[in-house]
Amino acid sequence: MSEKKKSPAKAEEKPNFFQKVARFFTTLPARIARPFRNMWRELKKVTWPTRKDLLNYTLIVLAFMAFMGVVIGLLDMGSSRLIALMIG
After folding, report:
1. Within this chain, do residues 33 and 56 fall inside the same structural domain, yes or no?
2. Domain housing 22
3. Which residues contact 49 (CB under 8 A, 6 or more apart)?
4. Most Cβ neighbours (<10 Å): which of 6, 9, 28, 46?
5. Sign of CA dihedral 22, 28, 34, 40
6. What is the pTM for the complete model shown?
7. Spatial separation of the C-alpha atoms in residues 65 and 69, rounded to whole Å
8. Is residue 72 part of a domain?
9. Tens of pLDDT along 67-85?
10. pLDDT tens digits for 18-52?
């Protein structure tokens, strides 16, 4: 018994090069906008700090930077003197 497989009424054709190019350019604006829409949705979910909290965080960061600047400066001076003693 030889049964022939029935082919679909309309076979799916692969799009040719020009159809691919046309589809690329027609979907380009939507593909560019999608990440920005997603980013905007995520930014709406963010809990932003109050002005007082922001000021406190800023002062903490500035104090830490000043402290680390002093520590790094002292380490630099100490290593410079150590090298000067080794050389001279």
Report:
1. no
2. 16-46
3. 57
4. 28
5. negative
6. 0.51
7. 6
8. yes
9. 999 999 999 999 999 999 9
10. 899 999 999 999 999 999 999 999 999 999 999 99
